[in-house]
Structure of O-methyltransferase:
Amino acid sequence: MEFIDEDLQHYAEDHTSAESELLHKINRQTHLNVMKPRMLSGHLQGRLLSMFSHMIRPKQILEVGTYTGYSALCLAEGLQEDGTLHTIDINEELEDIVRGYIAEAGLTESVKYYLGNALEIIPAIDATFDLVFIDADKYNYANYYDLVIDRVRSGGYIIADNVLWSGKVLEKYRKKLDEDTAALLEFNKKVQDDPRVENILLPVRDGLMVARKR
C-alpha cells in the first residue's frame, strides 16, 4: 500500500488538516484492538474523503463497508443538514463499537447503519445517491457498481478504495493472479470502459477510483 517515500508520506500528512479527536481515537483504538487495521482509511485518505464530501455537498451517501466507522464519519462531514449516510457492513462483531462512535459523533439521526449482505441491502434502500463509497469485499466490486450506477444522480460520484491492491494490479508486483486481484482488474476496466462516467484513478494510499456519472 506504500507507493511513495515514507518521509514524503509523513510530509504530506504534516501538511494536511488534522483529524478530529474522535477520528484520532478511532484510528488508535482500531490499531490496538481490531484485526486488519490497515483496512482503516486513516488520516490522509480520510481528509480526502471529507474534502470530496464537502465539495459535493451530498444529501444521500451510500458506503459499502463500514469497518470501524472512520470513513463514514469523514464522509458525513460534508452531508447537507438534512442528509443521510447509509453504511453497510457484514461484521456483526464490530456493531457495538461502530454504533458507539456514531453516537459519540452526534450522528445517530444522520447515519443509518445496516448489518448484512450489501448485495441484498442496497436494492432495499429507497434513495438516489449523490456519493457512493465502495470499500468492501473486492470480489463483488463490479456487482456493487452495477447495483448503484443507476441509483446515482447525474453529476454524482462513485469512489472505490484499494483499486491498486498494493500494486498487484501490475503483473510485476504479484507472484500469481489471485481472485481479489482479478476482480479489481475487472472492476477497473469496467469503470474505464463505461461511457456513463468520467473517471480518474488516484494513486493515493492503496488507490482510489473516482467516477463521476455524466
Observations:
- The helical segments are 6-14, 21-33, 42-56, 70-76, 95-104, 118-121, 141-148, 179-192.
